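Supplementary Methods, section 5.1.

A reviewer requested that the exact input to the structure prediction be made available. We therefore reproduce it here, unchanged from the version used in the analyses.
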Amino acid sequence: MSEGTISWRGGLSLGLVVVVGIAAFSWPFVASSATALEHGHDLPWLFAVLLGLLGLLVLAELSGGGLTATEVAILGALAAMGGALRVLSAGAAGLEPIFALLVLGGRVLSARLAFLMGSLALLVGALLTGGVGPWVPFQMIACGFVSLGAAALPRLRGRAEILLLAGYGLVAGIGYGIVMNLWFWPFAATSSVDGGAFVIGGGALENLAHYAVFYLGTSLGWDLGRGVLTAALVVVAGRRVLGSLRRVVRRAAFAGVSR
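The structure derived from this sequence is encoded token-by-token as follows.
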């Protein structure tokens, strides 16, 4: 396939994954009644649906000629590296070096591969650390979005690119925490922060304001550490890692991936 293209099957599959991800995180702000909390019983189904859609994306690209065996191998290697980094620090104090790989790996991959890499890296890490639970599908979606965002950044080179990626890593590290808290926030009977509880049947603006209070009071400090570490690792090692990944991409002759 030509550079930057994606098969219609792959595009449809990726679009479905993105829609499912947005719906999974945003439902508290559009829920209108107590029945919305029944969403909690759907978490196992979300995991199954997400894995099915990711598998569909891979099959669609393989059948459409948009994903070669070499690309699958490199994708697997990056996912394994991400899993290993997850083992080093499974979220301790918000310090997660895996996010530097999500940013740098996503930067050199196409949108479809970037999302797959981010999602699979988190899944491998969860399996290696034994941290598999109802939060995993949300983590997979959020990490996929982190890598997808890196793939969508403007093309730059040299120091400007490293600064762009470092800034993105800082924002993405914090943004990951902002969206991840949404998976459990509505199900807490009460909030530990005054004015931060989910309001059943409340409007979008009301619950958004409550969530902002909850997040600022419980998670910002934790997520700031993740963002700062990600930015620092990108500044320190970004140029060499990007160079190595791009050499692998060129030698493997990836279609529509090299950037």
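Residues 1-5, 254-258 have pLDDT under 50 and may be disordered. These observations are discussed further in the main text.
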